[in-house]
Amino acid sequence: MQRSVTKEAKSVDEAIRLACEELDVVEDDVEIEIINEGNKGLLGIIGSKNAVVKVTKKAGIDDVIVDFLRPIFEHMDITAQLDIIHEENQITVNLTGDDVGIVIGRRGETLDSLQYLLSLVVNRSSDEYIRVIMDVAGYRKKREQTLVRLANRMADKVTRYRKSMTLEPMNPYERRIIHSTLQGHRYVDTESIGEDPNRKVVVRYKANY
Asked: At CB < 8 A and 24+ separation, what contacts does 111-118 make?
């Protein structure tokens, strides 16, 4: 996608207008660099020089995302297609491709780290906070389903044996799924213990049952 163009015309305003037309944007959405203001020369003819400007389209959120991720993917030697979905105060970036599995990492750790960095970059360019979610070929949905099953299985064991059980360390997103799944459960409740990155969820039997 063309982001900048250099134009020459009899005046700066005319050069800017031509550049904006080529980029298909309005002047408020561009940054303008005047390379040469030009001059009318003697009698408006002899020695006259055209004005030269470089007009660059201001980066939108999608541009920010692509500009941040593309070099990373090139360094990882993978080809990924990006599907960027905008919702109210949330952006979801779905990655697809033959070799994008490496972006997930062990238990999603690489994906979570990349999502965190992308969130910092996006919100640095935004006037209001935007929640950023990165997913790879539906990984997060599958992981969520796995965690829901795990939570219910642990709740059944805790209820049966009336003994607390501690799950493996999880990131905040995954712990939230466990807490949400068992919220309001009749026989068990949950709490998080420890310090990140080794913070864990404990599933406890409610003593009053």
From this structure: 111/135, 111/136, 111/139, 112/171, 112/173, 114/69, 114/72, 117/68, 118/65, 118/68, 118/69, 118/93
List Cα–Cα distances, 86 to 60, 114, 136, in angstroms.
Answer: 12, 19, 17
Backbone region of residue 14 per phi and psi (left: phi > 0; alpha: psi in -120 to 50; beta: other values): alpha
Residue-wise pLDDT for 25-64, tens only, equals 888 888 888 888 877 655 555 557 888 889 888 778 888 8
Each residue of 55-73: pLDDT tens digit? Answer: 888 778 888 899 899 999 9
Residue type, 139: Y
Q: What secondary structure does DSSP assign to 12-61, as a single string?
A: HHHHHHHHHHHHT--GGGEEEEEEE--B--BTTTBT-B-EEEEEEEPP-H
Sheet with 90-96: strands ordered across: 81-87, 90-96, 131-136
**3 state DSSP class of 157:** helix
- The fold for domain 141-205 equals Ribosomal Protein S8; Chain: A, domain 1 (3.30.1370)
Phi (first) and psi of residue 171, to 5 degrees? -80, 170
- pLDDT tens track for 181-207: 999 999 999 999 999 888 999 999 987
Superfamily of domain 61-137: K homology (KH) domain (3.30.300.20)
Amino acid at 159: T
